[in-house]
Q: What sequence folds into this?
């Protein structure tokens, strides 16, 4: 290999990650929607082989954090590092190489309605790999076997049940054998039996393919079943990062309200109320006194 080719390859490929190094490192992440700040100095690490569950109430910043983790949004401040690559500063070719190593299972499946299941699953291969169609079909059917959808390759997305749609989305997310896999509300809208089967699939994939996973969910039972650690977001700030036992033990009232599904009495702040009425920039909420735990 020539020196020029070597430099090109190293510029396009994410750096090799040490087994002891975090697969994901987030430092001081801030995000805004217009003038409204939605993430405040978020720090987070995810280790190799770990299943990190992200939880929080509606509007807590879960989906916004996920969008920044997968590179769909750029932060206003801070850095996001995936597999050793700072994606806040990465070049387009570096991001292209990185995306071959990550998979995303979107909440609604995000399958193309005009394509059957097999063609939907093959889509990443068609975009990123130079393979003949027969080889891609075999690889796609193998992944359908993994997610227990054998024989569904000719079906259209409209012919799939909710659980089948979720599993087809997972099959497409893992078609490139990613190192890092993201799930957005994988159990949303599913009945308890199907939801439990999907949790089992997530655990099986981690074991069989040695993946690191980030799962955004509001389903407590699912989170406690699959998580190695749980990150709890509240009003754009991390309240706690801990294992399941540590989360259950927390005496933070906001965490306990989330775990016990208790509604919160919201005090009306006169100044904030006036700012909303006049369209002024709201004052950021006060930081929590509880320090996130890192393990």
A:
């Amino acid at each position: 290999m020539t020196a020029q080719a070597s430099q090109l390859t190293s510029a396009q490929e994410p750096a090799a990650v040490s087994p002891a190094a975090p697969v994901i490192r987030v430092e001081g992440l801030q995000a805004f929607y217009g003038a409204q700040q939605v993430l405040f100095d978020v720090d987070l690490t995810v280790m190799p082989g770990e299943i990190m569950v992200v939880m929080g109430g509606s509007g807590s910043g879960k989906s916004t954090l996920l969008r920044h983790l997968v590179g769909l949004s750029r932060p206003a401040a801070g850095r996001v590092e995936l597999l050793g690559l700072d994606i806040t500063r990465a070049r387009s070719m570096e991001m292209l190489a990185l995306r071959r190593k990550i998979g995303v299972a979107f909440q609604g499946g995000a399958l193309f309605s005009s394509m059957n299941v097999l063609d939907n699953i093959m889509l990443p291969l068609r975009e990123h790999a130079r393979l003949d169609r027969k080889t891609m079909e075999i690889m796609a059917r193998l992944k359908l076997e993994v997610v227990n959808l054998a024989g569904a390759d000719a079906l259209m997305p409209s012919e799939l049940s909710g659980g089948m749609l979720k599993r087809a989305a997972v099959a497409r997310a893992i078609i490139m054998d990613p190192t890092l896999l993201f799930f957005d509300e994988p159990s949303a809208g599913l009945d308890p039996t199907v939801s439990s089967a999907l949790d089992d699939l997530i655990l099986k994939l981690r074991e069989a393919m040695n993946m690191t996973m980030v799962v955004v969910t509001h389903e407590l039972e699912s989170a406690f079943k699959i998580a190695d650690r749980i990150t709890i977001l509240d009003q754009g700030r991390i309240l706690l990062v801990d294992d399941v036992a540590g989360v259950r033990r927390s005496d933070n009232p906001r965490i306990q309200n989330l775990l016990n599904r208790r509604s919160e009495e919201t005090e009306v702040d006169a100044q904030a109320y006036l700012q909303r009425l006049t369209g002024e920039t709201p004052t950021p909420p006060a930081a929590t006194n509880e320090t996130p735990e890192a393990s």
Q: What stands out?
A: Residues 21-101+178-265 form a domain with the Rossmann fold fold (CATH 3.40.50.300).
